[in-house]
């Protein structure tokens, strides 16, 4: 083993202050490395660890076992995975409420623009929601289960995938419901789906290099700029929502998913420091 977690990072880890993706690296490494575990034991302040457990207990025990969690367990999701999913911040009522409000407004505006040939505003906005949802699943600022990652190390990429799938199911479901509210556009109202998958996988695939804030911001910003440019070029259906554009979106999603798979270890063990986005 050539790399060890720096002592400062071990201290931050013990205090529960280490941010992803360094947290994920430290988690995975400490689980395998006796030397770093010994260091962790010497720097761990028992009071801080107790406080971490207490915060985690309070978070996880607050609703005994919520509707979502019971449902997940019933359909065969493992207990700890169900608990992790139920505690995913993006799946909480406030965030879902914001997404629903945004979708309702967009659908109302899109329906009021009767003169336009395609639901451009809706299909342009909808792909940004899963991207934002997945991005918001990172990091301690948004994340009560962050404490769980501190006290019970979990494989970083596995955690990321569980989160991503959960957020995608929730947000794509909401987008789908919103599409039903635009019946006069038919299948054109589903034009957001492939771009949504393309944006989300690209944002994730760029995360090991650009970090959990810059990667989704650049991808989301790039999408908006691209739509504005496409809007200047042709007046009818925007390029991404033509059959050719949909094909490109599917290809981008597949490429980014492949890249993400190739880079999966980077979510677990990246032997550099991440001070710039801690
Ligand atoms: Zn080590």
Short description:
By secondary structure, this protein is an all-alpha fold.
Write the layout of secondary structure elements.
Blueprint: H1 7-15, H2 22-32, H3 34-43, H4 46-61, H5 67-74, H6 79-86, H7 93-112, H8 120-125, H9 128-135, H10 146-151, H11 156-180, H12 193-210, H13 214-233, H14 243-262
Helix pairs in contact: 1-3, 2-3, 5-6, 7-11, 9-11, 9-12, 12-13, 12-14
The chain binds zinc ion.
Summarize the structure in words.
The protein has 278 residues and is mainly alpha-helical. It has one domain (7-273). The chain contains 14 helices and no strands. The protein has helices at 7-15, 22-32, 34-43, 46-61, 67-74, 79-86, 93-112, 120-125, 128-135, 146-151, 156-180, 193-210, 214-233, 243-262. Helix 1 (7-15) crosses helix 3 (34-43), helix 5 (67-74) runs antiparallel to helix 6 and helix 9 (128-135) runs antiparallel to helix 11. The longest helix has 25 residues, at 156-180. It is elongated and about 65 Å long.
Considering the chains and any ligands shown, give keywords for the structure.
0% strand, binds zinc ion
Mean pLDDT: 76
Q: What would you call the shape?
A: elongated
Count every helix, treating DSSP H or I runs of 4 or more residues as helices. 14
The helix fraction, in percent, is 55-70%
Reading the helices and strands in chain order gives: HHHHHHHHHHHHHH
| Oligomeric state of the chains present here | single chain
């Amino acid at each position: 083993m050539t790399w060890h977690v720096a002592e400062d990072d071990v201290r931050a880890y013990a205090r529960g202050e280490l941010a992803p993706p360094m947290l994920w690296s430290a988690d995975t490494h400490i689980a395998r490395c006796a030397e770093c575990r010994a260091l962790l034991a010497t720097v761990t302040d028992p009071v801080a660890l107790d406080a971490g457990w207490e915060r985690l207990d309070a978070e996880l025990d607050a609703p005994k076992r919520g509707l979502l969690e019971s449902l997940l367990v019933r359909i065969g999701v493992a207990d700890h995975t169900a608990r992790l999913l139920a505690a995913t911040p993006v799946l909480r009522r406030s965030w879902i409420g914001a997404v629903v409000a945004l979708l309702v407004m967009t659908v109302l505006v899109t329906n009021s623009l009767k003169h336009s040939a395609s639901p451009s505003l809706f299909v342009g906005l909808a792909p940004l929601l899963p991207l934002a949802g997945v991005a918001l699943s990172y990091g301690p600022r948004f994340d009560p289960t962050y404490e769980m990652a501190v006290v019970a190390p979990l494989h970083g990429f596995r955690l990321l995938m569980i989160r991503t799938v959960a957020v995608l199911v929730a947000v794509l479901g909401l987008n789908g419901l919103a599409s039903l509210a635009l019946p006069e556009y038919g299948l054109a109202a589903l034009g957001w789906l492939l771009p949504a998958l393309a944006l989300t996988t690209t944002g994730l695939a760029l995360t090991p290099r650009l970090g959990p804030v810059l990667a989704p911001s650049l991808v989301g910003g790039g999408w908006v700029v691209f739509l504005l440019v496409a809007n200047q070029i042709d007046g009818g259906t925007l390029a991404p929502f033509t059959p050719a554009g949909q094909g490109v979106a599917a290809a981008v999603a597949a490429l980014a998913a492949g890249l993400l798979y190739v880079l999966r270890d980077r979510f677990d063990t990246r032997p550099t420091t991440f001070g710039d986005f801690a």
